[in-house]
Each structure stands twice: as C-alpha cells, then as structure tokens.
Design a protein that fits this description.
Blueprint (H helix, E strand, L loop, with lengths): L1 H4 L4 H17 L7 H10 L17 H20 L10 H9 L17 H4 L2 H21 L3 H10 L3 H25 L4
Helix pairs in contact: 3-4, 7-9, 8-9
C-alpha cells in the first residue's frame, strides 16, 4: 500500500499529463481552471450585464466536472492517502523560515502562522488575502488564462502568448518570494 501514499515519480505523472493533453487536443478542448469562473458566472446570469459572460456555457460542463474531480481528489488524497503532515525541507530553508517568524517549518503543509484567523486579522494577512486575490484575478484576466491553462495547455499547443505568460508567472513568483513576502511574514 505504500505506493499509494508515496508521490508518483515524474516519469509516471509527466506522461499521464501528456496523454491527457493529447486526448484534449484531439477533441478540440483546452484546459484551464480559470475558465470555470467564467462558466459559473455565465450560469449565474452574468451575461445580462457583460458580453464576456455571454456564451454557450453548456459546452464547458466537462471543465466544471474536471474542477469538481480535482477538488474531490485533493480532499481524498489529503484525508486518506497522506502518511503524515511532515515535509522534507532543506535545513537552510527551515532556518530561513524560522528567521522570518515561521516556527516549526516543515511540520505541516500550512504553517499556523499564515493560516489562522489571527494572522488574517493583521495588516499583513489582509494584504496577502486581498492583494493576492486582486492580483490573481486581474492577472488571470489580463493574461487570458491561469497558470495551468497557459503552462500545460498553452505550451502544449506551442502558443507564444502562453510562453510569455509562463515567464511572467515565474518572474512574479520570484519577486513575491524574495522581495515582498519576507516583509509580510509574522517575523518581519
């Protein structure tokens, strides 16, 4: 049973993703989670207020089913297939995180210092929650898709805009990690 709880190696997961992408290309489908938000808004009647939401949402039901499956799969993996909450972090990373106010780094996937009601009631927590939500929403709309859509589907289709978007995602992630996040953590 250990093979179920251990992470799958890249040479299994990678070809599975490639197979799914080939399957989707053959059926003329594009993958991306952010398109589900547009579909849900369209189902809710947002097409009455904006042309962006005026489309045949019934053609996107498969993507909503995929999103529900991803959420259920994540729940099942977390509740039933995880051997422990411990994460094997590099000792240098643990030391650096402890210096930023994250005690016991690596003992759980979601540090209590960042994922608690107390932290969300601080100005740092509000900046991360509201600012992060704004930038994710704005960036997804401005880039014409999310990280999964561009990095998996767009790059598989050899789309130049997706390559530019993925490079932008990485640059934004590096800027956030090294220049902004250290000032927002509890030990800042």
């Amino acid at each position: 049973m250990e093979w179920i709880t251990a992470p799958w190696p890249w040479y299994v997961a990678g070809p599975l993703i490639a197979f799914i992408m080939l399957f989707m290309l053959l059926f003329g489908k594009e993958f991306g989670f952010s398109s589900n938000l547009r579909t849900m808004c369209s189902i809710s009647g947002a097409g009455k207020f904006s042309d962006f939401f005026r489309f045949n949402w019934k053609n996107q039901i498969w993507n909503l089913v995929f999103a529900v499956g991803a959420i259920l799969g994540g729940f099942i993996a977390h509740k039933f297939l995880m051997p422990s909450e411990m994460i094997a972090l590099n000792p240098a990373t643990v030391s650096e995180l402890e210096g930023m106010g994250i005690a016991n780094a690596g003992e759980s996937y979601m540090p209590k210092e960042l994922f608690s009601w107390h932290f969300l009631s601080t100005w740092q927590g509000l900046v991360l929650l509201i600012g992060g939500g704004f930038f994710v929403g704005f960036g997804t709309r401005y880039a014409g898709g999310c990280t999964s859509g561009h990095a998996i589907s767009g790059l598989s289709n050899l789309q130049w805009p997706s390559l530019v978007a993925v490079i932008g995602f990485f640059i934004g992630g590096l800027l956030m990690t090294y220049f902004i996040l250290p000032h927002l953590l509890p030990g800042a």
